[in-house]
Amino acid sequence: MTGLGRGWKRLLGVALGVMTAIGGFVDIGNIVTSGLAGARFGMSLAWALVFGTIGMGLYGEMAGRVVAVTQRATFNLVRERLGVRAGLVNLAAALLLTGLTMAAEIGGAGITLQLGSGISYVIWVPVVGLATWLVIWRVPFGVMERVLGLLGLALVVFVVALFALPVPWQELLSQAAQPAVPPDEGLATWLFFAISLIGSAVVPYQVVFFSSGGVEEGWRRRDLGEMRLNVFVGFPLGMVLSLAIMACAVPVLQPRGVDVQRLEQVGLPVVAALGRVGLLVMLLGFFAATFAAAAECALSLGYSAAQYFGWTWGKFRRPAQAPRFHVVMLAGIIAATALMLTTIDPVQLTIVSVVLGAAAIPLTYFPILVVANDRSAMGRYVNGPWANTLGVVFLVVMVVVSVISIPLLFLTKAGQ
Amino acid sequence: MVAGYGRAVPSTSLPAGLLLAVGCAAIAGCAGPTPDGGAYRRQAQLTAQAVSSIVRTATLAAEAELDGRSLAPFSDTTVSDAETDAGSAQTTFDSRQPPDAAADRLRRQLDAPLSSAVDGLQALRIAQRRGDAGAVRESLRQLEADADTLDRLRRGIP
Question: Which of A25, A181, A235, A301 has the lowest tally of Cβ within 10 angstroms?
Fold first, then answer.
């Protein structure tokens, strides 16, 4: 291959990586919380999404840098830096939250299939669970990540719908720029949904998946530039999709007083703006986003447990080579599928899991910050003053969020 | 819906089991007894608001299908879910014990539009599945009126 050909191939690889990061950023947490917040609070909570994405970008970059330099993934560091006992508590919380999130994602994929077929999601849930396991078992990591991430880009339909709807742009921008609690809402409820939006952007499984994926793909120092592009371009553009979902709800759902409690309600603005074609594209995006996230959650369960206990792990390894890693994933998929078969409400489950996820973030992010600051491990790739200042500020805010999230969950009755 | 009011506990100290309990309690939707008139009025407001939101969701979906802008499985699922949710909201409200005579009056006021909305959603679902555009339009008119009544009642509750 000529030098020019190699250049194009590399450029294509970078573009694919960024697009994958955009599509992969959105999951059921983003879809539900953005739609819900837009319908209820307009754009007054857009700042929470921006804040969460900045935090995700900061710590995603740190985790990716640590992998590229040390070839060590998140839970490896958690055990080393927090110690065995505190690390175990962290692992238990991560497994629980990721399991709950996976259940919500499987439920979301099932509901999307119901919306497209009319067949009850309860029938689809085991099918989605089985498909998740098959993808993890048979499909190579890069193919899985790229194909599902790119299909997730179908959610761009919300951006298109935004331009087809009678959007009061000035009002939206004003709400976003000068956030205030709407007159008929309480501060506690507003804050609760702010936390849910932050939680949707910084879900712990995504950092575990991102860093472990880096190990799977063999990131080295030379890959830092591409990794940073994915994080600093892909994630913010993924956030734009979430903001579009939020903004679409404002002209269609908010004036009618529609409170989002179901996934289909989030899609109504697209139907109003773009009709059947828009609806089909949106359903494809919903399915890709939730199904990809279910697979990422399952992998994150395996990664977390295997890295903590020091088991052999890796998606490229056959089940016989890494049996405990594969058993954890399979058990997680079965448990999440069983939870959804109880007909528990996936939207409420999503809200609770993103809020609890936000509460648990310091446990996952703190060890990453410590290692990214360790010059003996990172050499010249150690955190600079900007990364440190922003990282510490974000972590302090997340500790405050962690302390107030559970009381707010009760006080607002999960945001009612 | 959450069963009760929890003691504030810093989440970082919560063991995983308690986190699960918190999550399950938050999702389970258990309803506790109504302690006083204020709480009953608040419940009435929330119910009126919820059912109005549900009705308007169903009307949006059904209108889109009438205009040929939606797919039948999407509208059918949306309307069926609305019917289930409205019935559930009404049942939950009816299960609350009205604490005094004022609460009895409020309950009677709210009962008619709630029942009408639930019946209307059922009629809409039947008409939609039969492909009866005239009946769908008739149901939509009735449901819009019910939602307006519920909004008016909600605003009027002190």
Answer: A181
